[in-house]
């Protein structure tokens, strides 16, 4: 009979290293800095409670880059974002919150959801663009069909689309869509910081550094027991350990990410391109089939391409803020 994964096994066998595969990105959603911006604009409270709201809004994406099926990443993603089958699962955090600090964290967390929150617009039903598939998802498909910059030295004589370039390095269509989605998120984060809120990178770091220490326990209270029950290889202590370890690693990543997008645009693009390339083996299920420096240049071109494609991003973000604010009130998320 298959034994459960225990904390000792995680440490001994190195399974917890999948958590270290996470880099500052949020697949299938708005980007991290965009969620912080949206939460900051919602601003149910000020001061430290606003910091907690901003950090809470990043909470559902903490588990996005766990790639080991033994740790049930799909179950975690469904629970934190909500789906048609589990439409209220993200409310577990709100229901577990009791103190003002916990309510602030939960307020941000709930604002992120994919049922009636910010991620609905990003991934399911765009408000100003991509009404059938979500703003980010639609922009990702536009990117895949966009010719790469003809000055790019590797492809200047062929002028293929980004999708054709990604296919040439052995990416499936699903992998192409995922990486294009992530690139679009990064591009919008960079534009938000440079064109709209010059302090956005600092706010990401501030939220990561000064969020209430109650947050890991709040996540454990909300999800650990159900996680252990629904993931056959996980017992309760291990479930709590995975949740708290993932949150700690995510905080470190967000501090680095805030620093990265605080840099001048060309430097930020280069740093983020390197981060995406570092993440790529997780999506591909193996090492890159091309030199890393080559891959970085392709991703840099894709980030700049996404910036041009997503030049209408503020209309969608402003509509999303209004949409989420109304839905929070309608669903009784007030403290």
Task: Please give a structural write-up.
This protein is 64% helix and 0% strand. By secondary structure, the chain is mainly alpha-helical. The chain has one domain. α3 crosses α11, α10 crosses α15 (292-309) and α12 (215-230) packs across α13. The longest helix has 26 residues, at 236-261. The protein is globular. Mean pLDDT is 89; it is low at 6-28.
List the helices and strands and how they pair.
Layout: H1 7-13, H2 32-42, H3 48-58, H4 73-81, H5 91-96, H6 100-111, H7 118-124, H8 135-144, H9 162-168, H10 173-196, H11 200-210, H12 215-230, H13 236-261, H14 265-284, H15 292-309, H16 313-330
Helix pairs in contact: 2-3, 2-10, 2-11, 2-16, 3-6, 3-11, 7-8, 8-10, 8-15, 10-14, 10-15, 11-13, 12-13, 14-15
Descriptive labels:
335 residues, 0% strand, mainly alpha, globular, 64% helix
Largest sheet: none
Q: Judging from the principal axes of the Cα atoms, what is the shape? A: globular
What count of structural domains?
Answer: 1
Distance between the termini: 48 Å
Beta fraction: under 5%
Cα gyration radius (Å): 19 Å
Q: State the order of secondary-structure elements, H for helix, E for strand.
A: HHHHHHHHHHHHHHHH
| Stretches with pLDDT under 50, minimum 5 residues | 6-28
Q: Taking all residues together, what is the mean pLDDT?
A: 89
Helix content: 55-70%
